[in-house]
Amino acid sequence: MNKKKVYILEDRGILFLQGEDTKEFLQNLITNDINKVNETNSCFASLLTPQGKYLFDFLIVKHKNGYFLDCEKLQTESLYSQLDLYKLRSKVEILNLSNEFVVAGLSYDKFLEFEGAKDISGYTIKNREDPIFLDPRKKELGARIIVNLEKLYLSLKKLDLNASNIDEYYKFSHEIGIAQKNTDQLKNKIFGIECNFEELNGIDFKKGCYVGQENTARIKLKNKLSKRLLPIKLIEGELKDEIIKYKDNEVGKILIKNKFPFASIKYLNENFNEKNEFNCGNAKIKIIKPSWIK
Q: What Å distances lie between residue 280 and 75, 234, 239, 248, CA to CA?
């Protein structure tokens, strides 16, 4: 990523949670430990079904007396409703600030130029009041800044950054194996741990209970993780079918079909070899296994 470039991620939404019960409320729901989040550290987390299936994922950033949740905008209202459903009588206020704040992505190298920046995933600093944090999933994804929409372009000008096509950012994210687009297509179809959330620093196995914790822990402790969410590269044809085969043997199923496709892959199956080409209906594809997945 070029350190002069910035990607204005208009497809990201922002929820803000505040109130005296907020910390405990989030701790009882999310896969990560909210105690990790403070003025100098942000985290990646997810919200699962009681069975441990994927519902939402988001980045959590401390802001003033509450927390920003940076999530895919098309999921913002659904996430809001799900959190509101769990709120019951808790003293928590949930605000959708997607029309007031915007998320922008910048390079790893640019982040390290800021005063006080540290080369630590999730490390968070402030540019005036705006939080800037190194992506807690993988540092290669660079950093993010959450800015009030009214002062976005002035802030970017002062930081000597030039707006670039966000497809560059999502193409890179796809290449290194991190799904960020059309994640609603994963809902209830794949376990959270199969989305590589452990490797992306999104699951804390030492914290207490959370929604979906029992099955997540069982898959981990009993070594039953046999499928993973992996990026797909189209070689020929169109992705019209879902089932992925190698010589008539099923090795996976496409879950995200759009520009940056991902599939649930039986990565331990004897028929899976990342060097092979696979068939998906009339299409020929490659399955990319990121270097950070063992």
A: 28, 10, 7, 10
Same domain, 162 and 238: no
Contact indicator for 143, 132 with CB cutoff of 8 Å = yes
Q: Find out whether 186 and 54 touch, Cβ atoms under 8 Å.
A: yes
**DSSP designation for 137:** S
Cα–Cα distance measured from residue 11 to residue 72, given in angstroms and rounded to the nearest whole number: 6
Residue 187 DSSP symbol: T
For the segment 166-187, the average pLDDT, to the nearest whole number, is 97
CATH of the domain at 116: 3.30.1360.120
For residue 241, what pLDDT band results from cuts at 50, 70 and 90?
confident
Tokens of 80: 């809001």
What's the whole-model pTM score? 0.96
**Parent domain of 72:** 5-175
CB burial class (10 A; 0-12, 13-18, 19+) of residue 223?
Answer: exposed
Sheet architecture: strand order including 124-127: 124-127, 130-134, 143-148, 101-106, 5-9, 162-163
Question: Residue 270: helix, strand or coil by DSSP?
Answer: coil
